[in-house]
Amino acid sequence: GYKNNAPRIAQSAFGTGLCRSYKSFNIGYHCTGLWGCYFVCDKMQLE
Questions:
Q1: CA distance readout (Å), 19 to 3, 14, 44, 45
Q2: Which CA distances in Å does 24 have to 28, 39, 44?
Q3: pTM of this prediction?
Q4: Core vs surface per residue 22-39: b (16+ CB within 10 A) or e
Q5: Domain containing 37: what range?
Q6: Which helix H or strand E contains 35, and what residues bound it?
Q7: 38 and 23 in contact (C-beta within 8 Å)?
């Protein structure tokens, strides 16, 4: 489950019901890179 192997941000988001799923990505380029997270939530819970 998420409590044992997920990062703290995912634990917080799932534990409070803020999101349904998340996906992190890492894109490597020749001399730099891009890292980010994509969160999916219910549109009625957006602030």
A1: 15, 6, 11, 9
A2: 13, 9, 23
A3: 0.51
A4: beeeeeeeeeeeeeeeee
A5: 2-45
A6: strand 33-40
A7: yes
**Residue 15 dihedral angles phi and psi, to the nearest 5°:** -65, -30
How many domains are there within the chain? 1
- The tens digit of pLDDT for each residue in 7-43 reads 777 777 777 777 888 888 999 999 999 998 888 888 8
Query: Which pLDDT value is given to residue 5?
Result: 60
Would you state the pLDDT for residue 6?
65
User: What CA–CA distance (Å, rounded) separates 7 from 44?
Assistant: 25
